[in-house]
Amino acid sequence: MMKFALLLLAAAVLLSAPLATAHSCSQGFQKLAETKLPNSTPIQSCRSKTLGAELAWSFNSTSRRLHVAFGARLRHEDTGWMAWGVNPDGPQMAGTRAVIGVKHKNGTFECHKYNVTAMTKSRRCPLVPADDEDVGVEFSRCEMEYDPGLEYHVIVTAVVLPAKKFNSSETNVVWQIGEEIRGNEPLMHPKSINNFDSTETIDLDSTQIISYTRHQRSRLRIVHGIVNIVGWGTLLPSGVIVSRYMRIFPVPCKNWYDIHVTCQTSGYIIGSAGWALGLWLGKASHNYKFNIHNTAGLLIFIFATIQMLAWRLRPHPSDGYRMYWNMYHHFLGYSILALVFFNIFLGIKILEPEHVWKWAYIGVLGALGSLAITFELFGWIKFLQQNSSSKQG
């Protein structure tokens, strides 16, 4: 069991490795971008981004004009918004000079320039369109349209980057997608990891992405999720099933105790490693906190540690206190499982809003639940048969 868990852990690291590199955009979007950007400045880079977005751009180092085509699917059918911008202060939302395209309920589009300040980020001030003087850079183009072939909404813009504010070899780029609007004011975007991490620093001269920190954290978040699903979310409930159905009745197994201890111990060790990685990720992410997820993770670790210590201090079966210890052990164990299931689904919602992980873990729980139900039904059938035989005898 431990070897199997370690193999899963190694697979988590290997499977998440591709996230550290950027991928080329789709051929359809590249062809679309070629028709939107000026022929005099051929596309230098076209890459896929977080949130299912794609970005194509070309940069003229002499005029310092950056031409951009930014495309993505808006999730909401009626309204939505998409934004792209540059930030002279760093790869972050506050301080971004952006163009934001807004889709209204009647199907029309608007595209305006915005200055996203710390006040607007904290929602103490509304995010309203601004002129070039307020924005601080010159956006010479701002268009939004819909391409039915790709089912993409696309923003096309051009911006002049002043040399005093922007270093072309380290240009901070920010993008975002949201669902709700109020007039032409974009409202808060979804609070998923991908929304918060939609920034990078690129070298416009060499077209290289030079901010790998966020990509590395994305890979570690995948590892964090897989490790916790394996440790807390799979091995712990497997140990409970073994203890309940293989100890005496209905499927007695001589080695049930060793299997139970192996499942719980390996689940605790692997889950604790995932929890420790989550602590590090929380400290490394300065721009956002997930308090409920963090608190639930801490409680799981504390309660599981108490269970491990209590297992070492359990009374002898003939001890009068053993009955009370069993009651406590079972109650806390099932409470930990409930908290684990809640926190795993909460973490999946934060990490991966497309629901692929959600349905995968539902499949895992479905398999464990089906096994438990099968044992339970078999136990009741066996019990009723034995009860009937004893009455007849």
Structure description:
The chain has ten helices and 13 strands. Strand 8 and strand 9 form a beta hairpin. About 3% of the residues have low confidence. The strands form three sheets. It has a six-stranded antiparallel sheet. With 393 residues, the chain is an alpha+beta fold. The radius of gyration is 27 Å and the shape is elongated. Helices cover 48% and strands 20% of the residues. Helix 7 runs antiparallel to helix 8.
Write out key terms for the chains shown:
393 residues; single chain; 10 helices; alpha+beta; elongated; 5-stranded antiparallel sheet; 6-stranded antiparallel sheet
Rg over CA atoms, rounded to whole Å, is: 27 Å
Query: Major sheet: order of its strands?
Result: 1-2-3-4-9-8
Order of helices and strands: HEHEEEEEEHHEEEEEHEHHHHH
* C-alpha termini separation: 44 Å
Tell me, rounded to a whole number, the average pLDDT: 84
Report strand %: 15-25%
Number of helices: 10
Unreliable stretches (pLDDT < 50, length at least 5) are 13-22
Largest sheet: 6 strands, antiparallel
Q: So what's the oligomer here?
A: single chain
Bulk shape: elongated
Helix content: 40-55%
Number of strands: 13
Structural class: alpha+beta
